[in-house]
Amino acid sequence: MSLFITDECINCDVCEPECPNDAIYQGDEIYEIEPSKCTQCVGHYDEPQCQQVCPVDCILIDEEHPETPEQLQVKYEQLMKNK
After folding, report:
1. Which residues pair with 4 in a beta bridge?
2. C-alpha to C-alpha distance for 71 and 39, rounded to whole angstroms
3. Residue limits of the 4Fe-4S ferredoxin-type domain (predicted)?
4. Which domain holds residue 28?
5. Contact 36, 24 (CB under 8 A)
6. How many domains, in total, are found in the chain?
7. What's the CATH number where 63 sits?
8. What confidence score (pLDDT) does residue 40 get?
9. Which of 7, 13, 8, 39 is nearest to 26 (CA)?
10. 32 by DSSP, 3-state: which?
11. Per-residue pLDDT, 82
């Protein structure tokens, strides 16, 4: 599953540069995550880097975009082909 950022986001700017897939961007009010680019860092790291650095723990699993680890791996491979 991709991740999403809740409205508890304080716009601290630490998550965006940590995303290896450039899935995090500044939205109208808070940072947001593009589900089509989020692989939970599969293919890059063992754990989602944005969750590791978030000081308010506002980055959660997006239940609206269910994906298995295998599907996240395929998404990662597709993203790398398109870079």
Report:
1. 60
2. 9
3. 1-29, 31-64
4. 3-81
5. no
6. 1
7. 3.30.70.20
8. 97
9. 13
10. strand
11. 82
3-state secondary structure of 50: helix
pLDDT tens-digit map of 45-54:
999 999 999 9
14 contacts 72 by C-beta, under 8 angstroms:
no
Task: Render pLDDT for 22-46 as a digit per residue (tens, 0 to 9).
Answer: 999 999 999 999 999 999 999 999 9
User: Taking 80 as the threshold, does the pLDDT of residue 83 lie above it?
Assistant: no
Select from 2, 5, 15 the least CA-distant residue to 76: 2
- Mean per-residue pLDDT, 49-72: 95
Which residue in the block uniquely carries the two structure tokens 């944005």? 50
Residue 32 in tokens: 């947001």
- The pair of structure tokens assigned to 6 is 């809740």
- Please tell me what DSSP assigns to residue 12: -
For residues 73 and 13, what is the distance between their CA atoms, to the nearest angstrom? 27
